[in-house]
Design brief:
This protein is of the alpha+beta class. Among the domains are: 36 residues; 148 residues, no CATH class. Helices cover 21% and strands 28% of the residues. The protein is built from five helices and 15 strands. The strands form three sheets. Strands 1, 4, 5, 10, 11, 14 and 15 form a seven-stranded mixed sheet that branches. It has a six-stranded antiparallel sheet with strand order 6-7-13-12-8-9, with no helix packed on it. Helix 2 runs parallel beside helix 3 and helix 3 packs antiparallel against helix 4. The longest helix is centred in the N-terminal third of the chain and has 27 residues. It is elongated.
Length: 363
């Protein structure tokens, strides 16, 4: 039983309750309840997550040594701040672990997963790359052509005439659960806040690459497939529309892709490409490239009804240069368009490294 609900007088023997001892206990009870109301309850109320003001929530984060990124958009909402504060202690306790990153994903309404780097070393010099058959995770160099940050047995400083910065590259895969507004899955401000939280969770020697996943589903029985995305407050929605040009399309026959930052208003068989092309990949299965933003592609899985591949971006060219993508067109080996999709904007924090993963499903 909580002490505030205890009537102290009842703890006295029955014969003492009507004596001066009873009066003394009554006076103590009154003094205690006044003290609790003025001193104790005010502290509980002040730091109650659901009742605290924005400034009080920020004060809690500052007290715990945590830097909050509060910008226009989602990160200015009390919903976001309460999620941040309610998980700060758990994130500090589990810093650098997947548990911590799972809390971060929850804060930003995404389904995230963190991967370590592969043990396979690919000589691509200053590029992010993925091991081809198992984990599809990154390996990157810093400034030495043959020295890799994630080599299982990296050179030690006292055995060679040079020194390297030892680091681990980690991949943050994430799927969207909601849209932030009618135009975007996540705004630049929210992506900056995500980067800020990850920086405070990772080791100083770790480098993160953020990889959003574009999910495209097309129904073979309908030329147009629509998926409605809602915001986290269920107050507005935005449609993702996909046009399948033939029911006979096989996912394993998709050979190239174009990505743009506009969209076709009407989805018809007259579409021949994206409306405003930003970058292209002319070989998905055979890794033939024609764009400096993309250094390679890696197929995760492919069959008749699905294609899962990653665009490995040249990190010397930030994906922010593309101003985000809102449309994608896919072509067969004969350069004939087979699939077109328009969706809420996918974009990247200009101060962070980013990739793109595409998952196509034909049902």
């Amino acid at each position: 039983m909580a002490i505030s609900k205890v009537k102290f007088k009842k703890l006295l023997p029955t014969g003492m309750r009507s004596t001066r001892w009873g009066d003394l206990i009554d006076a103590y009870q009154n003094t205690y309840e006044e003290f609790k109301q003025e001193k104790v309850d005010s502290i509980i109320t002040k730091y109650g997550i659901n009742t605290a003001t924005e400034d009080e929530l920020k004060g809690i984060a500052y007290f715990l040594g945590f830097t909050l990124s509060v910008l226009d958009g989602y990160t200015s909402s009390l919903y976001y701040l309460r999620r941040e504060i309610s998980t700060i202690v758990k994130r500090i306790k589990n810093k650098t672990t997947r548990i911590c990153y799972n809390y971060i994903s929850m804060i930003f309404n995404i389904i995230g997963s963190i991967g370590n780097t592969s043990n396979t070393i690919i000589n691509l010099k200053n590029y992010l790359y993925y091991e081809a058959t198992t984990s599809f995770l990154p390996v990157r160099t810093i400034d030495q052509d043959e020295l890799y940050l994630d080599t299982p047995e990296f050179p030690t400083l006292d055995l060679t005439t040079f020194s390297i910065t030892v680091t681990r590259s980690l991949l943050y895969n994430f799927k969207y659960k909601f849209i932030e507004n009618v135009n975007e899955f996540m705004s630049i401000n929210t992506l900056k806040a995500l980067t800020n939280d990850v920086k405070q969770a990772k080791r100083p020697t770790e480098e993160f690459y953020f990889q959003p996943i574009l999910e495209i589903e097309a129904n073979r029985d309908d030329y147009i497939t629509t998926r409605d995305w809602i915001d986290y407050g269920d107050t507005f929605s935005r449609a993702q529309s996909t046009y399948l040009f033939s029911s006979g399309v096989v996912a394993s026959g998709i050979a190239s892709a174009h990505f743009g930052n506009s969209s076709h208003i009407l989805l018809t068989s007259g579409i021949t490409d994206v409306r405003n092309k930003i970058f292209a990949v002319s070989g998905i299965l055979n890794t033939t490239l024609d764009d400096e933003l993309v250094c390679d592609t890696q197929v995760v899985a492919v069959d008749t009804n699905s294609l899962d591949f990653q665009l490995l971006l040249n990190y010397s060219h930030r994906m922010s240069e593309a101003s985000g993508i809102t449309e994608a067109a896919f072509f067969n080996a004969d350069s004939g368009i087979v699939l077109y999709s328009t969706f809420p904007k996918i974009q990247w924090d200009p101060d962070a490294y980013g990739n793109l993963r595409v998952q196509i499903t034909l049902v």
